[in-house]
Each structure stands twice: as C-alpha cells, then as structure tokens.
Predict the structure.
Amino acid sequence: MRVVTYILVLATTYIQAQEFKPVTWTFTFSKTTIKQGETIDVIFSARILQNWYLYSSDFDKDLGPMVTEFSFNEHPSVKLIGSIKPVNAKTKYDSIWGGNITYFTGKAEFRQTVKITGANPIIAGKIYYQVCNDIEGKCIPFDEKFSLTNLKVIAKAPPITSQEAHKPNDIKKDETEKNYTNRITTVAELEQEKKKYSPKDLQGNDIAIQHLKKFVNKYSSCRP
C-alpha cells in the first residue's frame, strides 16, 4: 500500500516539477585542452537543495526508484569509453523499496570518459533523474539537456615521411663527406711534404725509417 501511495505522490507532483527544480546542473571537462586521440572525463556536477536527495546511477533499476541515466548523442569526433561513474555516492537500505539504494545529498558528481577522435567535438545529450524529499513526502522526476563544445583539440602530428626519417643520417653523411674532402686536400699536401725527406743520406745509407717515424707522429691524424 505504501508503494502505491508513493507512486501516486510521484505522479501528482510531476506538474509542479516543471516550475521547481531542487537540482542545478553544471557540465565541465577534466581539462580544457587535449590532443586528438586522447581521452578526457566529462564531469556532471549537481547542487541539491537541503532536505532533497538525488538517486544515483549504480543500483538495480528494477528495484523501484528511478536511477539517474545519461543519454549521449552520437558525434563522429567522440567515442564513449565505459559507462557513467558516480563519485562518492551514499548507500542505504530503503524500507519502501525493500533494497539498497545509492544517492546524493547536497552535491553530486558523475563522470563519463570519452575519447576525442577529431576536431570540433560536441558532447551533448540528456540526463534523466529523480529527486526525493522525505519530509514533504515527494519524489519528482526530471530531465536535463546538456551540451559541451568548449574543448580545445590539438591536431595529431602528421606521420614522419621516409625522407624526414633519414634526414639526421643524411646530415651526418654530408658532414662525413665534407670532412673526407678536407682530408683528401690534406693528403695532397702531405705528398708534397714527403718529398722533403730523402730515403738515403750522402753516403747512401737508408734513413727512411727515421723520417717515416717523424712523419707518422706529425700527420697520422690526417689520414683518410
């Protein structure tokens, strides 16, 4: 009998709900700038008037009370990751419905993770929820539209081409060739320098080894 009365009260107060809302919603992102392909949380925050409570989204909807539900419009730049998650909801046993329920008082927060796959994402949809006041014996259903567009998306960097991928090696190769050219010039000079050394003295004795040792010590670092 108490359940029937509860449902009748809900129905008769629905018209009043169009003018009076015990819950005020705000919608934000967990960060304001994101790179294309990354994930982000959409944060749904609610302020709840004193003596009122908002049912959460994470208990058995077949129990009786209207759980909070979120409906998201499809968008090519947005992909939902997982389901909506309530943050720090309270739990209690409800004798009217004969089971445990989760709910919020004062304030509530829900989060939905989304992946941003393109530019200019629009995250929009509707929230369906119910608030109750045990002092006045009222439970009122509501729905609330939401739309978030103020997210800055940084485009994904273009893939590196094969030419760009080898650019550092090409630079290194150019420097090596430049150094090698310099060494060739140096070797030519060394050929002229070698002419200063005679392989024999005036008596015909071979002194090339002595000159070679001196030559190597002086010019070994310049060989190609």
